[in-house]
Amino acid sequence: MKIAVVGAGPIGSLLSLRLLQKNKEVVVFEEDEEPGIPAHCAGVVSLKTLRIYDLSFSQRFILNRFRGAYIFLPGGHVLHVARREYVACVIDRVSFDRELSFLAEKKGAALMLGTRVEDLLLNRSKVLVKTGKRDFCVDKVYLCEGLSRTLTKKLASLKHRPLVGVNIDLEASTSFPEDHVCVFISKKVSDRLFAWLIPLNGGLVRLGLAASSNVAKRLSYVIKYATAKGLIDSLRKISESAGLVNVDGPLPRFSFLGDRVIVVGDAAGQNKPTTGGGLYYGGLGALLASQTTSGRDYEKAWWSVCGRDIKFMSIFRRVLDNLSDRDLEEMLKRIDLEELSQLFSFRADFDRQSLVMRSLMDYLARQPLGSLLLILKSLIVSLLA
Ligand SMILES: Cc1cc2nc3c(=O)[nH]c(=O)nc-3n(C[C@H](O)[C@H](O)[C@H](O)COP(=O)(O)OP(=O)(O)OC[C@H]3O[C@@H](n4cnc5c(N)ncnc54)[C@H](O)[C@@H]3O)c2cc1C
Questions:
Q1: What distances in angstroms separate CA 216 from CA 52, 161, 305, one per listed residue?
Q2: Are 49 and 66 in contact (CB under 8 A)?
Q3: Does 30 sit in the ligand 1 pocket, CB within 6 Å?
């Protein structure tokens, strides 16, 4: 069986490796000349995620490990969440993507770099993969084209627009522990997500955010805020990158044209609605797509493994989207931050967030009526939207 994989991002390469293990003939199309470039991702993943991509392989790309976070909230509140053990890390995404795709090539995939797939056409029981250079006839196509979604949007109706994400790497020293990240939540920072400050190795920090508008303005605000708080000093910019971020959940379907086209990873919206991170749920998507033969089975398997957490995260996202800074500040005034921080420290799982969210709902339900009403208000607004 001849298979085309569109996109040599982490999901396309992981999927290719798994399909090769099943003795499939795999051709990978990548529009860029070099996989991983241009960079776009902050690269923060749980240590659990590395296992999906094969731990011994992924460990080589770790730049720093984390066991906690400082979460800066409206009204000057700061939530400190920490574990004894390391739970997450930041990886060098450029090298990670490059090495993963070269590994797939080494194991037998034909890697067509600098080759953009322009269109997919049904040709009896085959699919014609049209590139600017020549056409290829294959039995099945796995679309791992990321959030550019040029081909996916010809097959599926896309309701939501992704956010714009930016990262800048700075030479700076930090005043907070190196095994922590900082997260900034406020509508000034992002209308739909948050900003991050990630210590890398060798005196570098990565500062970034994702929002639906005014990204440059918001970024300078975060730089000023982090500097004023004394979190970082001396800002020498080393590099910057940008990309799209999905927080609106998965597509309703992952399989098209009678199972001949299967969508995986960011293209399928397999991201966490709370953070936009796609390496965990997209990685699971790649594994499950390689293990199932029909599109229906793949969809069922993905929803049964990931659905519960994704649904909880989507509700949480909608609530946060509809809470103003003032609402959040009012709520935070009425709750015990120390108790909240304990709850997150003990219950939070970087990827599987339904448990901590259920605990959070139980916790909030025990709080004074005022804060509960604020949440109910935002829930109703989001359900009506
Ligand atoms: C600012 C930012 C920060 C992020 N931070 C994190 C994070 O900390 N943790 C995390 O888990 N996730 C994070 N993400 C999300 C993460 O980067 C994605 O989930 C991940 O890259 C998805 O992998 P993918 O292979 O599906 O898509 P991509 O990595 O986008 O790869 C798709 C590939 O397909 C190629 N392609 C597209 N169209 C075509 C075509 N027509 N023909 C040929 N090739 C094509 C592209 O060139 C690209 O190489 C972040 C994203 C952004 C933008």
A1: 34, 18, 37
A2: no
A3: yes
Residue 272 DSSP one-character state: -
32 lines ligand 1 (CB under 6 A): yes
Give the DSSP H/E element, type plus range, for residue 5: strand 2-6
pLDDT tens string 325-381: 998 888 888 788 888 888 888 878 889 888 888 888 788 777 766 666 666 666 676
| Residue 385's pLDDT band (cuts 50, 70, 90) | low
The percentage of residues in the chain with a pLDDT greater than 90, rounded to a whole number, is 76
Domains identified in the chain and CATH numbers: 2-36+94-158+251-306 (3.50.50.60), 56-91+161-245 (3.30.9.10), 313-384 (no CATH)
Whether the CB of 245 sits within 6 Å of ligand 1: yes
Q: Which two tokens stand for residue 100?
A: 């993963």
Would you call 165 helix, strand, or coil by DSSP?
strand
Q: How far apart, in whole angstroms, are the C-alpha atoms of residue 181 and residue 205?
A: 10
Question: Which residue from 145, 150, 218 has its CB within 8 A of the most atoms of ligand 1, so it is best to mutate?
Answer: 145
Rg (CA), the chain: 21
pLDDT at 220 over 70: yes
Which segments of 103-148 are extended strands (E)?
110-113, 117-123, 126-131, 135-138, 140-143
Mean pLDDT of the chain: 92
Cβ(165) – ligand 1 distance below 6 Å: yes
From the number of C-beta atoms within 10 Å of its C-beta (0-12, 13-18, 19+), residue 385 rates as exposed
Higher pLDDT, 368 or 48: 48
Q: How remote is the C-alpha of 6 from its chain's centroid?
A: 19
Which residue in 193, 192, 196 sits closest to 222, CA to CA?
196
CA–centroid distance, residue 120 to ligand 1 (Å): 21
**145-180 tens-digit pLDDT:** 999 999 999 999 898 899 999 999 999 999 999 999
What's the rounded Cα separation, in Å, for the pair 35 and 4? 16
- Helical (H) or strand (E) element with 196: strand 195-199
